[in-house]
């Protein structure tokens, strides 16, 4: 089924561009492509863009640019046959201590699928994930797609506090909580990396469109990585 | 520098009020990293105060909710209080709203019982000089940064000010005529642009939304107002894919009770959006309390944008003319 992109007003100062109705890498890559084009060639009056899974929200200033001008611009970009930006994908390697106090739901995930804990870790670290979106809370990176054999439904009742750095599985997605916040994903591990730091510009470690690959580290190395994080990158 | 010298350029918080935060017009450009804009809920009132004082529109002030703080000024300066009428008094004497007032060093600013509205704004000459983070001084509660340590004020806090030159005192008495105030009322009818996902709702649901009143429940804050009224029923039960959220978004969870999202909303969300309150009417929403009722009326993009240009254009023109 071919989805016709939709350009819809979201109030009087924002426009929603819907490129699909599914969470899929191909659609999400199109979102990031369009977002990059808009940023590089945006005229005055485009205030901010929020890329999401299959849509973009564009904030604009109607005193500087009209709805129809933004809409035409997006239409042109969508129909343009220019080559896609050839930026090499950014793959970020993420050390994770799996299980134990760092990943209190790892056992559950293993049992849920009739796997051993080691198998879940092996499967989770076996592929590169696309960061679909950064949001929900500051710096939270939601990625996919998780191999079907470890996809696990979210908790029926979210935890009120999930520690920063927690790595979770939420349905078909995996993700990292960058700051302490409430959350309903199944926590399988935790990274010692700091993923949100106000002293950095931008403060979030991930941006939408990045790629991530996890690797397992022993619990005793958690603090080592934390101390070495400056040398590590 | 010793304490007394620092304190010379300060407002000292004697009592914080129930919920007082430093806000400006918000932190823009970081929503893609999950960082919300925050900013004054009634951005018109804050801006009016700043412009009356000759401040930049981006200057930070205090957003004061329901019950105001008790503040001691350690410096002679100028203030303008706008938005809700929370009965402000300077050394016990009533202070007019929407008017530049001179405050001498050692003065106490207090607030009495609420007369109307919910959120008052205290603009100070030069703005509150907390350090900007990512280009804004707004308190971002979810991120625990901005304003004063990312939290509401507490007793003992010191708010840094800019020294006010004595010639600034000539501005005292400047005020904004009532004709230029937003049409604040307890049970306003807010204009909305329908969509982007109005078609997720049944015709009855859409009609209920546009014809019945929705009460603001006590579970309402700067993130958003949870409303209660005739449930807005769905036409299709297909799940929405999480998308970016504009200020004023009205999303409807499965229980059919709408939520009006405001300055501290999440950057993205997955409930279908029936409509978005127009920016010209967000100040009206900001001044409503739990128990007040909201009605919604559909308008066009053209009318919405004209209303916004009118409201802000009239304010700027008036202040340029005096």
Write a concise keyword list for the protein shown above.
heterodimer, A: 233 residues, alpha+beta, Gyrase A, domain 2, Cyclophilin, 2 domains, seven-stranded mixed beta barrel, four-stranded antiparallel beta sheet, 13 strands, elongated, B: 322 residues, seven-stranded mixed β-barrel, six-stranded antiparallel beta sheet, 5 helices, 20 strands
Shape of chain A: elongated
Using the 3D structure, state the CATH architecture of the largest domain in chain A: Beta Barrel
Which protein chains make the most extensive interface, counting residues with beta carbons within 8 Å of the other chain's beta carbons?
A-B, 46 and 41 residues
Assign the structural class of chain B, choosing from mainly alpha, mainly beta, alpha/beta, alpha+beta, or little secondary structure: alpha+beta
Could you tell me how far the N terminus lies from the C terminus of chain A, measured between alpha carbons in angstroms? 43 Å
Low-pLDDT segments of chain A:
none
Order of helices and strands of chain A: EEHEEHEHHEEEEEEEEH
Number of strands of chain B: 20
Beta-strand proportion of chain A: 25-35%
């Amino acid at each position: 089924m071919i989805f016709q992109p939709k350009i819809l007003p979201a109030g009087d100062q924002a426009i929603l561009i819907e490129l699909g109705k599914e969470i899929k890498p191909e659609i999400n890559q199109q979102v990031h492509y369009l977002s990059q084009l808009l940023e590089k060639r945006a005229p005055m009056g485009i205030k901010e863009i929020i890329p999401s899974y299959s849509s973009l929200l564009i904030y604009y200033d109607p005193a500087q640019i009209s709805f129809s001008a933004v809409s035409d611009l997006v239409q042109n970009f969508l129909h343009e046959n220019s080559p896609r930006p050839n930026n090499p994908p950014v793959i970020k390697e993420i050390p994770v201590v799996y299980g134990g106090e760092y990943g209190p739901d790892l056992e559950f995930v293993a049992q849920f699928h009739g796997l051993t804990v080691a198998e879940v870790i092996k499967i989770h670290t076996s592929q590169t994930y696309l960061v679909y979106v950064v949001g929900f809370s500051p710096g939270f990176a939601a990625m996919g797609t998780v191999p079907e054999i470890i996809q696990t439904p979210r908790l029926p009742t979210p935890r009120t506090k999930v520690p920063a750095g927690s790595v979770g599985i939420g349905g078909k997605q995996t993700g990292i909580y960058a700051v302490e916040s409430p959350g309903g994903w199944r926590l399988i591990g935790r990274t010692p990396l700091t993923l949100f730091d106000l002293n950095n510009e931008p403060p979030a470690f991930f941006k939408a469109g990045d790629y991530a690959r996890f690797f397992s580290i022993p619990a005793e190395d958690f603090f080592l990585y934390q101390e070495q994080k400056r040398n590590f990158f | 520098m010793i304490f007394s010298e620092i304190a010379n350029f300060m407002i000292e918080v004697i009592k914080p009020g129930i919920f007082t935060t430093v806000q400006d017009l918000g932190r823009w450009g970081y929503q893609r990293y999950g960082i919300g804009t925050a900013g004054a809920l009634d951005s018109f009132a804050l801006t009016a105060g700043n412009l009356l004082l000759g401040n930049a529109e981006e200057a930070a002030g205090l957003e004061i909710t329901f019950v105001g703080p008790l503040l001691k000024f350690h410096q002679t300066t100028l203030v303008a209080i706008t938005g809700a009428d929370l009965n402000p008094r300077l050394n016990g004497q009533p202070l007019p709203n929407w008017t530049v007032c001179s405050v001498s060093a050692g003065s106490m600013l207090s607030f009495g019982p609420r007369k109307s509205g919910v959120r008052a704004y205290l603009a100070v000459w030069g703005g509150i000089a907390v350090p900007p983070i990512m280009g804004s001084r707004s308190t971002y509660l979810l991120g625990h940064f901005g304003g004063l340590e990312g939290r509401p004020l507490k007793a003992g806090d010191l708010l840094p000010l800019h020294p006010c030159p004595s010639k600034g005192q000539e501005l005292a008495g400047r005020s904004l005529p009532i004709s230029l105030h937003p049409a604040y009322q307890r049970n306003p009818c807010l204009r909305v642009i329908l969509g982007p996902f109005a078609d997720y709702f049944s015709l009855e649901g859409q009609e209920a939304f546009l014809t019945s009143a929705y009460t603001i429940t006590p579970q309402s804050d700067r993130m958003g107002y949870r409303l209660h009224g005739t449930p807005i029923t769905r036409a299709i039960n297909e799940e929405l894919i999480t998308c970016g959220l504009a200020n004023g978004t009205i999303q409807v969870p499965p229980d059919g009770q709408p939520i009006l999202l405001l300055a501290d909303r999440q950057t993205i969300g997955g409930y279908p959006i029936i409509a978005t309150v127009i920016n010209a009417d967000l100040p009206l929403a900001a001044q409503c309390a739990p128990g007040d009722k909201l009605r919604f009326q559909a308008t066009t993009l053209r009318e919405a944008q004209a209303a916004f240009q009118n409201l802000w254009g009239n304010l700027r023109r008036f202040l340029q003319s005096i």
